[in-house]
Design a protein that fits this description.
mainly alpha; 10 helices; 63% helix; globular
């Protein structure tokens, strides 16, 4: 006897973006996360992979905690399981709620922080990993945020010794390439119910 996969199972395991880490899948299943949220997290996680791969090729000596960025991208909106209205409309209550939820499930504070920092990139102590999660959360749908991109460019220029302009041109090319698949990503996300 075969069973029909649930909408959440399809969002987590169906064809499309890279799969989420197993620990994140288990957490989303335990929370009975909305399928659209799971699809969104897969998309942002997938784009974070693309950004990290580009960064590794472009700046191989740059120290970036790849696993932290990927975990952060995979869980950044998990607080929306407690604030369902923010799946379809604006709101920031999910940010701190997500951090607390992750902590309550045994996630280390250094990883849980991304749920709270993904929309606060202007704070002075935000690290490059946080900026990359924020960037992935914007560029998956080809949303360009100059202020955020400028912060990333400055960090890259500081690390590489290259000019801000050189880093801007390279990042702009990378983000343009990632943004080209935005329509397919949006279609994947909207194919899953809230």
């Amino acid at each position: 006897m075969t069973t029909t996969p649930t909408p959440l199972h399809r969002a987590l395991h169906g064809p499309g973006p890279r799969p989420l880490p197993d620990a994140v899948v288990r957490l989303l299943q335990s929370l009975d996360a909305p399928p659209r949220l799971a699809a969104h997290l897969r998309l942002v996680h997938d784009v974070a992979h693309e950004l990290l791969d580009w960064l590794e090729r472009r700046h191989p000596s740059l120290q970036v905690d790849r696993e932290a960025v990927l975990f952060g991208a995979a869980t950044h909106d998990i607080g929306k399981t407690a604030h369902l209205g923010e799946l379809l409309g604006p709101g920031s209550a999910h940010e701190e709620a997500g951090r607390r939820l992750l902590l309550a499930h045994g996630v280390a504070p250094g990883l849980a922080r991304f749920a709270a920092t993904h929309a606060t990139w202007t704070l002075p102590d935000v690290g490059l990993e946080d900026l990359l999660v924020s960037l992935a959360d914007k560029i998956w749908k080809n949303k360009r945020v100059p202020e955020l991109e400028d912060l990333v460019v400055r960090r890259l220029a500081e690390a590489s010794g290259r000019t801000v302009w050189e880093e801007f041109l390279d990042l702009d090319d990378a983000l343009t390439a990632v943004g080209e698949a935005a329509e397919e990503r949006l279609a994947f996300q909207t194919a899953h119910p809230v």
